[in-house]
Amino acid sequence: MMNQPPADNSRVLLTGATGFIGHYLLADLLRRQVRCAVLLRSPLDRSTRRLADMLCELGVVLDEQLSSGQVVLLTGDLVCGLPDPTGQGIRSIIHTAASTRFESDPMGEPKRTNVTGTFALLRWAQTHGINDLHLVSSAYRCGKAHCQVRETIEGERPEFHNPYERTKWQVERACETWSHAAPGRTLTVYRPSIVVGEYATGRATKFSGFYLSARASQILAEQHDGAPRTSVGGGCVRVSLRIRGRAGDRQNIVPVDYVTAMIAHAVTDRRLHGRVYHLTHPDPPTNAQIRHAIESYYHITGGRFVDPGTFDPTVMNETERLFYEVSRPIEHYFVDTPTFDRGEADLLERSAKMFCPSYDLQALSKLFSYADASRWGRGKVVDRGNHPVTNDTANNASAEDTPLYDAYFKSFLPDRISRSETAKTTAATVTMRFIIEDVADGQWVCRFDRGRLVEVHRGENTFKEDFTYRTDSEVFWRAIAGEVHPQEAFFKRQARVAGNIEQALKMAMILHKFNQEFPCDRETLQREGLTV
Questions:
Q1: Same-domain status, 290 and 271
Q2: What's the confidence (pLDDT) of residue 199?
Q3: pLDDT at site 142
Q4: Which of 268, 266, 260 is CA-nearest to residue 347?
Q5: Are residues 375 and 409 in the same domain?
């Protein structure tokens, strides 16, 4: 039986409503008749349209919720400034907003959002007398765990795999300190493990983490297209791929709709507040099961796990190097697989009369199928039947920008390369072609010799390149501003490569460091009066 919402007119404030977990959670709360205040970034009209589109896919009409007063929208930002909640009746906060970047970037993420933003939210809650906080954390804030992880907030600092884990640990400690600083405060912590798409359909809006190994495998399948096929499973391409990890270790994945249903249930029952819940899978699939599902879906075979203690990364073949270039951020998931105490989570499940579904070959395949159909987040799935299709979301380039592209490649880039420490230390010798698809005659070939840019040609020509980068104008401008990590762009198919893939991926990382060293935008090119 569904919990009843509070009898008064109080509201819960939800941060991160346009995130993967956030919009599912908002839909679950509204189905339970919980009155919500939603924090959205400026400009409000654009954020509102995005949220409305996401909720519509879940069967929730935002306009109806707004007109009925079930939802109110507040404009603000965790770091740049939070709104005045006077008159909104906010009594609780559900904090889902977070950066899931594993590596630090020039904008200060993930620390900026996860730590600085949460500290600001805690000060805001104190100022406005809000004493009930629900924090969506991560099971992997445990770092490198050598024993079962408990459903408690420990004071001892663990060793972390990446900055993301560190920030999640810091946030929990800060929220615990806040909860003990004044009487009447309550902190409830939810620690989901690796969150993947909706169980029944595979629907997701984010394809990082767990999905990286599937995307890497898809790239291998594409690279080996046309190679001889085996007689196994209707004809598979055989690749020679050693995977550092143990076949029997388990990947703790949980569907997003399970996670948010558990949180929504706990939020609406005060008897369940004040605890830490591991929203983890009690019987997660093994590395071997996941590998089998990936290979079956992409029609490849030949992957094998090698014990981490005997794996020699210095003798990797081309296939293995490509696989690890794409999946490197999650490599530790195959090796360090903690187990989690679920005592409190078991009680929550029994209260909600809902249990975490199991993952077999079919359930895992749905995750890959939806990722493919949405082009890994690049397109919107418009048909959720057996043959889903997508609408591309790329914008057309402005004709006014056309001279600026030439100015970048022929003026800004040569000038900054000559001063770049990144170029000097990497000393790359390579020829590459850039194609910006929505720009007229949008091709530039750049030849580097030991870190020096010695030639630039525009347009189609017979200049032989080692590889090609292909993207659109929107991603191009974000990339040269240092805002787009090349691995993320490649993973989401916002950028594509042809030719020597391994060399292209390595050079993409060098260019990313250069873009962080010398970020560029339209205003910079116009201000410097660069011409060609």
A1: no
A2: 97
A3: 95
A4: 266
A5: no
Give the side-chain half-sphere CA count within 13 A for 232.
11
For the chain, list residues with pLDDT below 50.
Answer: 1-2, 231, 382-395, 532
Report the number of distinct structural domains present in the chain.
3
Question: Are residues 249 and 229 part of one domain?
Answer: yes
The answer to whether the beta carbons of residues 189 and 137 sit under 8 Å apart is yes
Q: Is residue 229 located within the same domain as residue 343?
A: yes
pLDDT, residue 323, reads 83
- Using the 8-state DSSP alphabet, how is residue 241 labeled? E
Cα–Cα distance, 374 to 321 (Å, whole number): 26
Q: Is 1 inside a domain boundary?
A: no
Domain assignment of residue 177, yes or no: yes
Contact 478, 468 (CB under 8 A): no
Query: What pLDDT is attached to residue 384?
Result: 39
The answer to whether residue 2 sits within a structural domain is no
Domain that holds residue 343: 211-253+283-392
SS3 93: strand
pLDDT confidence of residue 390: 43
Residue type, 189: V
- What pLDDT shows up at residue 526? 87
pLDDT digits (tens, 9 = 90+) for 269-315: 999 999 999 999 999 999 999 999 999 999 999 999 999 999 998 89
Per-residue burial over 422-445, b = 16 or more CB atoms within 10 Å of its CB, e = otherwise: bbeebebebbbbbbbbebeebbbb
Would you give the DSSP letter of residue 484?
A: S
> Using CA atoms, how far apart are residues 130 and 212, in angstroms rounded to an integer?
39
Task: Name the 3-class secondary structure at 148.
Answer: coil
Decide if 279 contacts 193 (C-beta within 8 A): yes
Give the C-alpha separation, 41 to 47, whole Å. 6
222 burial type by CB count under 10 A (0-12 exposed, 13-18 middle, 19+ buried)? exposed
pLDDT score at 392: 44
Task: Yes or no: say if 10 and 92 are a contact pair by the CB < 8 Å rule.
Answer: yes
For residue 173, the model assigns a pLDDT of: 97
3-state secondary structure of 135: strand
Q: Minimal CA–CA distance to 190: which of 88, 295, 277, 250? A: 277
Read off the pLDDT of residues 521-530 as tens digits, 9 standing for 90 and up: 988 998 887 6
Identify the pLDDT of residue 104: 85
Domain CATH for 188: 3.40.50.720
Q: In one letter, which amino acid is 160?
A: F
Q: What is the CA radius of gyration of the chain?
A: 24
